[in-house]
TrEMBL record:
It is found in: Cell membrane. One of its GO terms (molecular function) is symporter activity. It comes from the Bacteria. CDD domains: MFS_ShiA_like (cd17369). Residues 12-422 form the Major facilitator superfamily (MFS) profile domain. Keywords: Cell membrane, Membrane, Symport, Transmembrane, Transmembrane helix, Transport. GO terms for cellular component: plasma membrane. It comes from Kibdelosporangium aridum. The chain crosses the membrane at residues 12-33, 53-74, 86-112, 161-181, 187-206, 239-262, 274-293, 305-324, 330-349, 369-389, 401-421. This is Putative proline/betaine transporter.
């Protein structure tokens, strides 16, 4: 591969990583604020437990909106191209986050505060619903054949990078301000910063070209009027199993990233700064190890790696809350850092597995729908369900059973999917099991 080819591909990798990082920054910023701030700002009349549940419910609304965003952006991504839909999705997310930063609280506008908060969370969800699969396709479809998993991993790196950025900004802002001032108005600063970050992301994203796969589909006149309808012809069984395969990683990740902050501070009495710093360090490891795992997937195949990663995820999910409940600083660090090392094994190739379920001309529509449904059923519901279980039982035993059951279900679904789609020869574009 010559320099003239490599340079545009590297630009695409940078653009997808940057755009995904900014999208996830906005999305995770809301999650952190839901765990630590929103119950007091938007639901002050509720008890602390009920307020946290209400805040997490607004967090889940973003996941409910993600399939809608996936449908809309997936449709136009297969009809008019990947590039412009990704530009619009980034703008949508930035606008939603900036307006959240300017939104008056319950004390100022009463019940309209939580109503508008939910509406802006819907805007965020729609934006991320378009970004999630689209950035993955932009990288995957520009990639050299021998490095498809590695290139598809760049937008996946945006997930932990966005979290690191969100937590760092949140942590710095809360550290340099008095606690009362931060709770009152300082929490808005990270949301308002989104406007400037999105401008940087748009400048980078507008410089990339359309993907070769979409260009070929246009050249061959394969563009269809209703791409989702054709994408669904893959078969109901295959589609359902692929969604189930994707649920565990999302559910475990959001328990780790969001629920553990609320549980650790409110129930275990752990220091908020300590938890934020430890989760951020774990996310740095998540980010740093993705190139290792994606390179291994290119060399040895992603099927076996995903299955072993699913087993590791199941084991650590079962151990996570018992480790947290020790309240030992060292053991809590092990629990959180362990998540940062195990989650990326399956996360880094999950998007490529889902994308390769569909032919290129309907890939955006199909993969968007599946990824967003999995995110809703996994990450969107996990903090809410876990909080409800915790409030009703008073312990984390039920939460551990819940998350372990999801991990087992996803592992069995992966085994079934890989049997439905046998490995193809290297010369052919890798299927979901390659």
């Amino acid at each position: 591969m010559g320099e003239s080819t490599a340079t545009p591909q590297r630009k695409v990798a940078l653009a997808t990583l940057t755009g995904a990082t900014l999208e996830w920054y906005d999305f995770f910023l809301y999650g952190t604020a839901s765990a630590l701030i929103f119950n007091r700002q938007f639901f002050p009349s509720l008890s602390p437990a009920a307020g946290t549940l209400a805040a997490f419910s607004t967090f889940a609304v973003g996941f409910i909106a993600r399939p809608l965003g996936g449908l809309v952006f997936g449709h136009f991504g297969d009809r008019i191209g990947r590039k412009m839909t990704l530009v619009v999705s980034l703008m949508l997310m930035g606008i939603g986050s900036t307006l959240i930063g300017a939104l008056p609280g319950f004390a100022v506008i009463g019940v309209w505060a939580p109503i508008l908060l939910v509406a802006l969370r819907v805007v965020q969800g729609i934006g991320l619903g378009g970004e999630n699969a689209g950035a993955n396709l932009m990288a995957l479809e520009h990639a050299p054949e021998a490095k498809r998993n590695r290139y598809a991993g760049f937008p996946q790196m945006g997930t932990p990078a966005g979290l690191v950025l969100a937590n760092t900004v949140f942590l710095v802002t809360s550290s340099v301000m008095p606690a009362a001032a931060f709770t009152s108005w300082g929490w808005r600063i990270p949301f308002l910063l989104s406007a400037a970050l999105v401008i940087v992301g748009l400048v980078i994203r507008l410089r990339v070209t359309e993907t070769p796969s979409f260009a070929k589909a246009v050249e061959r006149k394969q563009i269809v009027r209703f791409p989702l309808k054709e994408a669904l012809t893959v078969g109901t069984g295959r589609l359902v199993l692929t969604v189930l395969l994707s649920i565990a990683n999302s559910a475990v990740a959001y328990l780790f990233l969001v629920f553990s902050l609320s549980y650790g501070t409110a129930q275990l009495g752990l220091n908020r700064q300590f938890l934020l710093i430890t989760v951020t360090v774990a996310s740095v490891l998540w980010f740093a190890t993705i190139p290792l795992w994606t390179s291994m997937a290119d060399r040895r195949g992603r099927r076996g790696m995903f299955l072993w990663g699913s087993v590791a995820l199941l084991v650590w999910a079962a151990a996570f809350f018992p480790l947290l409940n020790s309240k030992s600083t060292a053991v809590v660090v092990i629990a959180l850092v362990g998540m940062g090392l195990i989650i990326p094994i399956t996360h880094c190739v999950q998007g490529a597995i889902v994308a390769d379920t569909f032919p290129a001309h309907v890939r955006y529509s199909g993969s968007s729908l599946l990824l967003q449904l999995a995110a809703l059923l996994g990450g969107g519901l996990a903090p809410v369900i876990s909080t409800a279980i915790l409030n009703s039982s008073g312990g984390t035993g039920g939460v551990t059973l819940y998350i372990s059951g999801i991990c087992l279900m996803s592992l069995l679904a992966a085994v079934a999917v890989f049997r439905l789609a046998p490995v193809a020869p290297k010369a052919v574009v890798s299927p979901a099991t390659a």
